[in-house]
Write a structure and sequence with these properties.
Number of domains of chain B: 2
Radius of gyration of chain B: 22 Å
Number of strands of chain A: 40
Largest sheet of chain B: 9 strands, mixed
Strand order of the largest sheet of chain A: 14-17-20-23-26-29-33-36-39
Chains: A alpha/beta (about 400), B alpha/beta (about 400), C alpha/beta (about 600)
CATH superfamily of the largest domain in chain A: Spore Coat Polysaccharide Biosynthesis Protein SpsA, Chain A
Low-confidence stretches of chain A: none
Oligomer: heterotrimer
Number of helices of chain B: 7
Helix content of chain B: 10-25%
CATH topology of the largest domain in chain A: Spore Coat Polysaccharide Biosynthesis Protein SpsA, Chain A
Structural class of chain A: alpha/beta
Number of domains of chain A: 2
Distance between the termini of chain B: 56 Å
């Protein structure tokens, strides 16, 4: 029985503040954690036994998936211990697997591609990407891997290593021979390079691939997944509420009169939507949220238990769980000169390559009435924003902006 | 691979700042120099550092413990005889090739990587420098080291040794041999190895900064501030203007009317303002209080400092724990400063104030004055000369 | 104290156990050992620190094993005495933290039955006792064996006949279960396995647990299975590292400039001229408080005594200080008083009991503690965290000074609330507080001077410490520190009381440490010095920097900035700490783990 290993141990430091309280793989896209999409696609591809390699905030993963009963599959967990790299993470499960495929839990892979990898022993998945600068690129010959290169400034090909592999027990010998990379980690790409010298490693071109490196990539992933959803309304829709296009509404959610929802939109369970709010395409709203009167939300992800209750505007943003917007709080998402929005992440200036980007907000943030959040802001957990305050840039967790 | 960092020296030319702490612990951009080096090493994949300590070693050991997953072993050099002697102390901890660096020169990780990846057993990191005669000047041929001349009399050559080497384990034999002959500095060891016919490959360092005199702290501070993690912690009151790249630590309060122009780093637990102006490129350490209407520009203000209202501080260094009461004026300009018998002309220099001083109100300090550690200066004084440590100016 | 660890899982046990032992090294570091099962028990032991063991270990095969890092109590430091201990047949391996009081009797009985012993430890008994009771079921054997033990223990046991399980048991000494994925851990303390799992089950006294690779079963003393709650640890466990200092205690003394800043962080505002606590504390302090009772043990009690002086001075509110062990049984509990409990660990049994009594009587309760999530914080109405970081040295140093700073903050805050302190004065006090770290650094600079004075005390049979006013509790603390770690008899007295009895004890060879700050009773203290010298005793005075009078009276003088009025001088406390440290070091005493003392007394 081929097992499926999903790497779910990473913290996702580049996705702070969203990952202060949850591992990267548990970030929600269309109201399901990224890793769940992989699980479901893998199950559809025929896999029934899973091993999740966890570490950072492992309890979130374990509590959500349990032993796999509700999916009718078997899920086991192994703790990586220390973050020593992908080869180390895979090496830790030696005693648990035989013939197995590996998925990086924070990248979404499609069902068909997983099937193809499953059918090709000793293979790695590749993808053609327009801007491969952030990824390791792969040189192949006759569909066999020659070498995987670290990311480079001027890549010579646009074929990247997608992060999905099919291995057998022999890989563990190669892992033991892998030395530390220049980043100080044991990387599976180095292992594959050693393997490729000794024997054939096949390459499989993927059709679908969606990675999340920076927080705003979640918005892109969210959009892509929402496009594929089927309409499903389980809650209560009042008579004078308008629902257009593909909209998913969870159990016990009430959509009050005057609400105008343009799909694709996913809304979770136990939410209170409206009255008189405007929810525009590519928005995901978690469970237990309230989007209230005179609010407009567009192209955003709202995590569980957050409230955007009165006269707010949220666009192209990610709002963590347990947040509360004071009346009149608005998020700016477009520069006056309409140029790309540049953000500062971990000290570096990065071009988000988006003309529209609102706020990346952590959990339990409270905003005062009529406060203003400027474009491309990052707000840490538990921040308090005072009435009328203007917020810009990176605000550390537990701070106050008055 | 392991790294050995030599951090036992005092740094006499940096007095009074080094009277109670070793040179490597002086902060730029709110991090001790040694921490910047640890950060660079961490990025290279080296996971174990042997730090040779000596002078005021408790300050180093108390600060670091184990550092972000890097294993740090401390070896004490009882007598500070020289760099080679310091390296020799680490002998028992090394059983393969290693990198050795000085703890007081800031280096970037890519340069260290070059050394690690170099296939030669012996390798040295060099740098082009406008005034090489202050250092060990190196002469190269075909990328290999040919000669190393320590502080030559005339202005010759254009490359200097950064003091960063890669050595094989066997170098300790040479170190022991020369140690017995009373030769204690690494440059001499290298010259001796060259005479023996050892081949040293060379690599050029990208970014290397030496801190020799107190005013170097200000310059290096400015450069390191370009890489700070921009974020705002603490409490920012209404009507505070923050421009440019600014890092504000946890629990710090910036009060109304303050104007902060980056690049600036402010530590944790500080109180700034109201109506204080902090201009580039300034670092303010933890637990410091800057009172209203004070202007600080291009300065290094360390931890636990009190600066009273209406004060003016520019191009200055104020060390830990000092108290400057209101209306302090640190004039800035050109000055000739005496350090360990040498006279140095320095442009745009303000005050250099040692640890734990108490300076009463309305004191004016002329440009380039060095005020020692634990000095007490009474109010309304005009300071025109250096003040020795532990002095009282009545 | 020792550190013990057990592992049963899929990883190589040698790496996991060594890693864990390093994190437990603070509990003892005179020898270490490891025993891993691969058909038989593979045992390796070494004297000295864990890195000695690490250097000598070959690669050991096996995924189930136990480890130990020792602080010798019975039997010297030898390889044979190091744990793990095997039973005579070699089947059973145990590691033990604690003391078996009836080990001699048990040993005799076992020897009669043919068991042989190779060490002088009490721990080895346990291995053979289990083997003696072994009838094919390890759990039953352990149950029978521990019934015969008198004393206290935390043990982890493995048996080659049942190589799929490890068993843990405890009485009084700590043992925690780490619940992993396909692996389980047992250890004296959480940091030993935190990197592999953050799910913890606390084993209670008299309980036994059986750990296989996949599951954990806990049995009570009636051998019935118990349902235990799994806790997820998400607070940051700080690593305990000496990092180059010869002793934890010295490192913690040097930590004080930082720890004092930490206590003040976020709580004082120089610009706003106020002191802020969290909401619960603020509500408590703003309520009607007619009297205050401080309850604590040991050094914390002395902090309380200091608190009394300052709180009374700033608030005009009567303050009573009582030993927790007395208060819980005999103290007057009146609902109008605010009871402040001081407990560094938050787990001190007597203080917890006192807190509960106070709460039950309707008193308002406030706790000053260093450990977030501790029991004391869960009992009281409000708590103030000292934020000093982990204190390993058994003798309290940085936690003592942090407690005093907290009490100072409470006194000032209450004084403001009761309008006894003006905003202007508060500003001065806040400045004073901010300047304490640098004054402490001054004292740390004078370490060598203090070492010189310590040489004078090294051979004393008895030392007196005297002071007046707030210096009286300082002298009690000075004496306690000296007693605790150097084993020299020392006693603190209110200087004015000497003549009412204690003088009889003074001889030429009883040095007297006099805290002589320039407060309102300075002249009286000089007179006291005269009286002491008249009896031929040496006087070591701790005086203020600019005091020129004192040299004429005392034999030796150590200087520190004084307090301000009634405020205690923290630098003087640091002098007393360093003095005790150096005396103990000169006498080669075991400073971090003095004999017969335990950190956080969780025993009555």
């Amino acid at each position: 029985m081929v097992k499926c290993l999903i790497l779910a141990a990473g913290e996702g430091k580049r996705i702070h503040p969203l990952t202060f309280t949850r591992p990267k793989v548990m970030l929600p896209i269309a109201n399901k954690p990224i890793i769940e999409w992989n699980l479901l696609n893998a199950i559809n591809a025929g896999l029934k036994e899973f091993v999740f390699v966890v570490a950072y905030k492992s309890e979130m993963v374990r509590n959500y998936f349990g032993n796999g009963e509700k999916y009718k599959v078997k899920i086991e967990y192994v703790n990586q211990g220390e973050p020593k790299g992908t080869a180390h993470a895979i090496g830790v499960v030696e005693k648990f697997v035989d013939d197995f495929i590996v998925l990086c839990g924070d990248t979404i892979f499609g069902e068909n591609d997983i099937k193809n990898i499953l059918n090709t022993k000793k293979s790695i998945g590749l993808y053609k990407l327009d801007n491969p600068n952030e990824y390791g690129i792969v040189e192949t010959k006759n569909d066999k891997v020659v070498k995987i290169y670290e990311k480079m400034d001027k890549p010579f090909t646009d074929i990247i290593n997608a992060g999905i592999y099919h291995f057998d027990k022999k890989v563990f010998d190669f892992i033991k021979k892998t030395s530390k990379s220049s980043r100080g980690e044991y990387e599976i790409t180095d292992t594959i390079n050693i393997m490729a010298e000794k024997s054939d490693v096949s390459s499989v071109m993927l059709e679908e691939w969606r990675d999340v490196v920076y927080p705003w990539h979640l918005l892109d992933a969210n959009e892509e997944v929402l496009k594929k959803l089927d309409k499903k309304i389980e809650g209560t829709i009042e008579k004078n509420a308008t629902i257009k296009g593909k909209v998913v509404i969870g159990k016990n959610t009430i959509v009050m009169n005057g609400s105008y929802i343009e799909g694709p939109v996913a809304i979770g369970e136990n939410c209170k939507i409206g009255p008189n709010c405007y929810i525009r395409p590519y928005t995901s709203i978690g469970d237990g949220c309230h989007i209230g009167n005179a609010c407009e939300v567009k192209n955003s992800i709202i995590f569980d238990s957050s409230n955007i209750p009165h006269q707010n505007y949220v666009g192209d943003s990610i709002i963590g769980s347990g947040c509360n917007f004071g009346a009149g709080t608005k998020v700016a998402n477009l520069r006056l000169d309409k140029n790309n929005i540049i953000v500062t992440l971990n000290g570096k200036k990065i071009d988000s390559k988006r003309r529209k980007l609102g706020v990346i907000m952590g959990d339990n943030v409270q905003t005062g009435i009529n406060s203003m959040i400027n474009i491309g802001s990052f707000i840490g957990n538990n921040v308090s924003i005072g009435p009328g305050a203007t917020v810009k840039g990176v605000i550390e967790p537990d701070s106050k902006v008055m | 691979m392991k790294a050995v960092i030599l951090a036992a020296g005092e740094g006499k030319r940096l007095r009074p700042f080094t009277e109670a702490m070793p040179k490597v612990m002086l902060p730029v951009a709110n991090k001790p120099i040694l921490e910047h080096i640890f950060d660079a090493i961490k990025k290279t994949g080296i996971d174990e550092i042997i730090t040779v300590v000596g002078y005021e070693k408790e300050v180093i050991m108390d600060y670091f413990k184990d550092y972000k997953g890097l294993k740090i072993t401390y070896i004490t050099q009882d007598k500070q005889l020289g760099t080679a002697h310091a390296l020799l102390q680490a002998k028992d901890e090394i059983n393969e090739s290693f990198i050795v660096l000085a703890g007081d020169n800031i280096i970037d990780n890519k340069s260290i990587q070059k050394l690690i990846l170099d296939r030669s057993e012996y390798s040295i990191l060099v740098k082009e420098h406008p005034h090489p005669s202050k250092y060990g000047v190196v002469f190269l041929e075909n990328q290999n080291l040919v000669e190393l001349v320590e502080k030559p009399e005339e202005e010759i050559g254009k490359f200097i040794s950064t003091g960063i080497y890669k050595f094989p384990k066997t170098v300790f034999k040479k170190l022991e041999q020369l140690n017995k002959q009373g030769i204690h500095d690494l440059s001499s060891v290298v010259q001796s190895l060259l005479k023996d016919g050892i081949l040293f490959s060379t690599n050029t360092a990208d970014s290397w900064m030496d801190i020799v005199y107190p005013w170097d702290l200000i310059q290096v501070n400015e450069i390191m501030l370009q890489n700070i993690k921009v974020s705002t912690g603490g409490t920012i009151e209404k009507n505070v203007s923050i421009k440019g790249d600014v890092s504000i630590g946890k629990d710090t309060k910036i009060y109304s009317g303050s104007y902060i122009v980056g690049p600036i780093i402010i530590g944790e637990g500080c109180e700034i303002g109201p109506n204080a102006c902090i201009f580039p490129s300034t670092s303010i350490g933890d637990n410091s209080v800057i009172h209203p209407f004070t202007e600080i520009q291009n300065s290094v203000i360390m931890n636990n400092i009190h600066i009273g209202s209406n004060s003016f501080i520019r191009n200055s260094v104020v060390a830990r724990g000092s108290i400057l009461r209101h209306n302090f004026t640190g004039s800035s300009g050109e000055s000739i400063i005496e350090v360990e018998g040498e006279f140095k002309k320095v442009k745009n220099i303000g005050s250099l104030i040692g640890e734990d001083c108490t300076i009463e109100n309305h004191v004016v300090v002329d440009p380039g004055c060095i005020i020692g550690r634990k000095c007490n200066i009474c109010s309304m004084k005009r300071i025109r000369n250096n003040i020795q440590s532990n002095s009282k100016v009545m | 104290m020792c550190g013990i660890i057990g592992y049963n899982g899929f990883r190589d046990a040698d790496n996991v156990i060594l890693d864990g032992l390093k994190k437990l090294e603070y509990r003892g570091y005179d020898s270490a050992g490891i025993a891993i099962i691969d058909k038989k028990q593979q045992v390796y032991k070494e004297i000295g620190e864990i890195k000695n063991l690490e250097k000598k270990l070959p690669k050991i095969k096996g995924t189930i094993g136990i480890g130990h890092t020792r602080w010798a109590t019975h039997g010297g430091v030898t390889k044979n005495n190091a744990h793990p201990h095997l039973s005579t047949s070699g089947k059973i391996a145990i590691v033990h933290n604690g003391i078996i009081e009836n080990y001699i009797k048990l040993r005799e009985n076992l020897e009669k039955k043919g068991f042989k012993f190779v060490s002088q430890t009490d721990s080895e008994i346990i291995a053979n006792l289990i083997e003696d009771n072994y009838r094919g079921n390890l759990k039953d054997a352990v149950f029978s064996a521990i019934k015969k033990l008198e004393g206290y223990y935390a043990i982890v046991v493995t048996c080659t006949d049942e190589p799929d399980k490890i068993i843990g048991a405890r009485l009084q000494n700590p043992l925690v279960i780490g619940v992993g994925d396909n692996e389980n851990f047992l250890a004296s303390d959480i940091p030993a396995f935190l990197k592999y799992t953050n799910r913890v089950v606390y084993l209670d006294d008299t309980e036994i647990c059986v750990l296989t690779k996949k599951d954990v079963k806990v049995y009570n003393k009636d051998e019935k299975i118990v349902d235990k709650k799994e806790n997820v640890i998400d607070w940051n466990i700080q690593d305990a590292e000496k990092s180059g200092f010869p002793h934890f205690m010295l490192k913690e003394i040097y930590d004080q400039p930082d720890t004092i800043n930490q206590v003040l962080r976020g709580r004082i505002s120089e610009i706003h001229r106020n002191i802020n606590f969290n909401e619960n504390v603020e509500n408590l302090l703003n309520s009607n408080i007619s009297s205050i009772q401080i309850v604590a043990c040991g050094t914390s009690y002395y902090a309380g005594l200091i608190g009394k002086y300052i709180i009374e001075k700033f608030t005009d509110t009567p303050v009573f200080v009582e030993f927790s062990s007395e208060y819980r049984y005999f103290g007057l509990k009146h609902e109008s008083s605010l009871v402040i409990a001081i407990t560094q660990s938050g787990e001190t049994l007597d203080t917890l009991a006192a807190l509960r009594e106070a709460k039950n009587s309707g008193c308002k309760t406030l706790v000053i503690t260093n450990v977030i999530g501790s029991t004391a914080t869960r009992i009281s109405d409000a708590y103030i965290l000292m934020q000093s970081g982990l204190e390993i040295g058994v003798a309290a140093t940085k936690t003592f000074t942090s407690q005093i700073i907290v009490l100072l903050l409470i006194a000032l805050k209450l004084g403001m609330i009761k309008n006894k302190i003006s905003a202007v004065s508060l500003y001065e006090y806040i400045r004073y507080l901010r300047e304490i770290p640098r004054k402490v650094r001054d004292v740390l600079d004078k370490n060598n001077e203090i070492l010189d004075i310590a040489k004078q005390l090294k051979n004393a049979k008895s030392v007196f410490f005297i002071g007046r006013g707030v210096n009286y509790p300082l002298s009690l603390e000075g004496a306690l520190k000296l007693k605790e770690i150097s084993y020299i008899h020392a006693e603190g007295f209110a200087a004015g009381e000497l003549k009412h009895g204690p003088f009889a004890l003074l001889t030429k060879s009883t040095p007297v440490v006099v805290i002589a700050t320039k407060d309102s009773t300075y002249d009286k203290i000089l007179a006291n010095i005269g009286e002491v010298k008249a009896r031929g005793s040496q006087v070591i005075a701790i005086a203020e920097i600019d005091d020129t009078e004192i040299e004429k009276h005392a034999d030796f003088v150590l200087r520190a900035p004084g307090g301000s009025g009634v405020l205690p001088s923290i630098p003087i406390i640091v002098i007393l700490q360093l003095l005790a440290y150096h005396v103990a070091d000169l006498r080669k005493c075991s400073i971090d783990k003095p004999r017969n003392l335990a950190k956080s007394v969780t025993v009555e």
